[in-house]
## 1
Amino acid sequence: MTRHMLAAATIALMAALPAAAQEFTLDARYTDADGDLVADIPSDPAQLVDPETLIFAYTPVEDPSVYVDVWQGFLDHLADVTGKKVEFFPVQSNAAQYEALRAGRLHIAGVNTGGNPIAVACSGFRPFAMMARADDSFGYEMEIITHPGSGIEKPEDLAGKQLAFTSETSNSGFKAPQALLESEFGLKANEDYTPAFSGAHDNSILGVANKDYQAAAVANSVLKRMIAREVVSSDALQTIYKSATFPTTGYGLAHNLAPDLQAKIKEAFFSFNWEGSALQKEFEAQGETKFVPITFKEDWSVIRQIDAALGVKYTCN
């Protein structure tokens, strides 16, 4: 989906959501003098860092060990471009990723769609890239899945049933389905259906396939990768709802990395050759072949609107 198509889908989506207003602000430790909604790079050289070893983490939506080898070729390229050592940090939760960014233990990260606002607001995260297809289209959809024979054929059938979410910071795994089920079908969490939390998209998908959960809300980008790897069979699952398209994982930096280093890291993302890489093999299920530049202010506006409609507040501890 192109940015213009996403904007149109956003208008249709937000028309169905309850009216709400919330100003997006950063934690007091960060500044935003240029109004781009992300933390400024510090102007005081004493506040900048230029580490000998760069730490990279991919969003913890699946077993982190799967991605050590997937990302290694890219990390080797990143090391060549920056002249730094680069290590993969297998974070176990979204909260751990945000805390590592905020504490300075993590320098480069792929943060899940719904988590970008809290990482930006509370951890000084500066997203700049996203995966896209050859034609520059991008994104994924939220799907509500069940297993054959569950008795759930359409969203309305979730009434009185259990629905698995992933975590409260996830867009497709919690915030979007909660908002859409209420606005489109009048189904409220804890009133009309019982929420459960699996912790990750792969847990939800496997849980439905194994009939541990009656249904689950998941990112279909994860679902496609798991089917392509034959971790789960498509015959074990049934989709009863598919959303409009959302932006996918945002890749970005800790705000206080030295400006020259930030520029080299961005160069590494946009100069990486995907052809024949492990990264291409992993993500080709949804056709992604490159990194494209994004801005948090523009490309994550739909996610901030969903958060506002749900009354989400970014409380930074």
Note: The two ends are 36 Å apart (CA to CA).
## 2
Amino acid sequence: MNPQITLATARRVLLQLGRDHRTVAMLLVLPSALLGLMCWVYSDIPGRFDRVGPQLLGILPFVVMFVVTSVATLRERRAGTLERLLTTPMNKLDLLLGYGLAFGLVAIVQSGIAALLTMTLYGVDAETKGGWALFLSAAVVGVFGAAAGLFASAFARTEFQAVQLLPAVVIPQLFLCGMFVPRSQLDSVLNAVSDVLPLSYAVDAMNQSMQRGGLTGQIGRDLAVVGGSALLALAAGAATLRRQSA
């Protein structure tokens, strides 16, 4: 691994993103807008958004980062950019870490905007320490979404195929993460499956952030699982990345 190459790759990706205004708008605005929509949906049901909002604050950045990262990376492969880069001294891990760093920074900004709006404009009541815990949890989940998107892009040949991976990767985690039914109430088999899905730990961290009003050891362990999953996804992506364009 070469830190200089990794940082140069991250800088190139950020500059490219900066020129794509629609993608930037989708990354930074869409999660907050969707949270606002759900706040509006639950506006006549007191207290409901206070429960659902923090969970969505973790789930929506993950979904958006997964889609955008997988499609953007695949587009670069189809254009031949990745193939040309891999003919240089850059290795696959440098490339994936550079992309992960760039999109990870975007995920942090995205999560900060969404968390701020959730606790102000959308009215979720969180103490200062709880707010920081919510932001940190959302940021880690967003980084995991970016890493998962980079990993998924290795298995797709077209942008359409990358989007098709969304139901396979995201929806099972969404159903089993505890948002719809508490994980303790799931069937034993489903509960065992949910225990190995990173999004389950993300939702647990968001719930704990609201209930405990700040960072705790349990939240730290949950976020460590999500962060470790992000690193594992990047390593797996580097191991499976093809040098040839699709």
Note: The CA atoms of residues 42 and 48 lie 6 Å apart.
## 3
Amino acid sequence: MIRLLLVEDQTLVLGALAALLNLEEDLEVCGQAANTEQALALVASEQPDVVITDIEMPGNDGLTLAARLKRDAPDIRVIVLTTFARPGYLKRAQEAGVCAYLLKDGRAEALADAVRRVCKGERIIDPALAAEAWQSRDPLSERERHCLRLAGEGHSNKEIAKRVHLSEGTVRNYLSQAMNKLDADNRIEAFNRARELGYL
């Protein structure tokens, strides 16, 4: 029996997923969480084999959860199930150790099959997303991404510099490079564009 933890902030979607997956003879939903914090508590108590998570949720997102599990519980397989076919998200998911990246408009049978396949060590990417990601490259460096994320949260250059242990001039350069790469007129426009593309 493969034990599953579902992480999804929309209650109806969460219930429907649980009901569908529990119909499979070899799958058992052992926990349901609405956010990353609940999920981590259930991981500790239920010890699932596979975590199926959305990306955008209140608080930390599903990719942050995946990265935490990669670090703290590397034996747990993570499947991302989302509505967002964004190439930037795919890159971040791969870095976080996600085993499968699937879109919510797929068939329930395909999700159940993906669970079985990742338990055998396979990696799965939705074909439509794979094609889009192949044609689109994340232009931001990790430093640019970090500075841009903090700028989007409303921090000044001075505050960002203190947080990332860089000079204000270096932070200004990273933000300027990010704006140029994203063809944005200011830091907020760059932040919003990067979010839309899934680079943050």
Note: The chain is about 55% helix and 15% strand.
## 4
Amino acid sequence: MTDMAPATLILGAMACLLLAVALWMFARAHRKEQARSVQSHLQRSLDILPSQTAIGGMQSMPGVQQAASASAVSSSTPHGTWSRLHSLLQRHLGIDAWGIAPRMLALLAAGGLLLAVLAALQGGALLGLLALAAYGLLCGFGIWRRLSKRREKLLQQLPGFLDNMVRLITIGNSPHAAFQMAVNNVPAPLGDALQQAAASLSALPDLGQAMGQLERNWRLPEFGLLAAVFRMSVRYGGRADLVLERVSAYIRDRQSAERELHALSAEIRLSAWVLALLPIVVGTLIMVLNQGYFMRMWQDASGRKMVLAAAALEALGAFLLYRLARLK
């Protein structure tokens, strides 16, 4: 027990540090929208003013001067650090598309650290790291499933939104104006994504660029297709309503084909789920119902190697079953 004390203390210190970071991120998250509105106000003010007047009259405009000072202060405060961290996570992970509040992310992180500390107290630092890795994989799987469901629901709502835009363009509105009018009363998750695009349009009125940003956030090629349509409409003109109507029909046809393939492959996917989850469920029941048996096996050197090898083989088998059952 004395040999495990230093590792346990190190894990406890790391857990407290990461928990403090998670709570700090949650405390600073609610200020993100306020800083974003200040920056968008500054950008609109700079776009509206002529270039010469903007350079000469910046000191006579207290609103712009206050916004600039607020933006400069925010870049040097902890909130600026959180904004840069959020931008990094958004660029690499698309965190805004998850639909999870910062409070829930902080609670998930705190729960994982608590589980790792408890496991380290029972079986050492290696068992704590293994429990933390298993918890991270479980949370990642849950986030992936949630994101997949949100993307599927968004694609189901997208053709109806495009039909509304086609009707508004047909009666004489521009694509930009039709987008602004059709965004209202769109349910989530499509409404949340389009509200982000509408907010970016207030600073830079480029619909193609706004849809391109949505493609990077949500990792959906349909948004990239719409961005190309809007860029072509702005650059070369033409009947954007006809192109949007064909895009809507294409999305509906593809969704129909995917539903048919989903129904035909239901047996294969169910078999893959059962084969992947059965060893995990059986191992978890053994650890919960008979802890002494598992701890005796874990404290033995050969038994520990067998447990780690079984975990690695289970991860490899689950990945292979996923690749076999994944039909596109």
Note: Residues 47 and 266 are 54 Å apart (CA to CA).
